[in-house]
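ok so for the tutorial part 2 we go from a plain amino acid sequence to predicted structure tokens. step 1 is just haveing the sequence, like this:
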Amino acid sequence: MVSEERRKEILDNLSEGVVEYEEDRVVEYATAALEEGLDPFDAIMNGLAAGMEIVGDLYDRQEYFVPEILMCADALYKGLDILKPHLKKDSNGAGKPKGQVVIGTVQGDVHDIGKNLIKMMFDVGGFTVHDLGRDVPLEKFAEEQLRTDSEIVALSAMMTTTMMGMKKVIAMIKEKNPDVAIMLGGAPVTKDVAKLFGADGYAESAGNAVQEAIKMIGQLRKLGEEAAQN
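step 2 — the prediction. this is what the tokens look like for a chain of 230 residues:
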């Protein structure tokens, strides 16, 4: 059993390794995490993913730019390659993914760094991700949700002008499938805007998106069970 002090040391080095894009350091501490019995999910979420959240903040503050983000992502994936195969299966033993997510940046918006960070977090969190990319035609979200039967659709927008398209997407999806949970994110989006547009959730940050998604899927499953009983 790894001591709390050693756990912190491993997590800090994983996080800092991602932020400083030091691939060798990430590999060293990801390997140490496994050898010393640290829970791989703990190492991923509180080490690698925590580092990527810091990277997201540095990008928002314009201290990091696209080249740095890509190098940080390379370091993150080096760690993931080592840790991910050792993640414990679900308690039911089937090892099912946590759920499916359709994600994309809405039409007219070519900003995708934030969306890519959140996609990475969903990937890390054990979701199956269907990434539509950026500047996605509004109807494509509804089509992809129906095609994949995903429980969640995550929409991103970085401009107030493109943000308005989110409202149309929500209406389109809910009309075809009212049971889908829709999450919004991006610089101009607030909790109030999400509520006003009829979304089910709002992601303040990349890490928060995954927690929010897990919560939303839990609510959907509960509603489904209640409907089946009645």
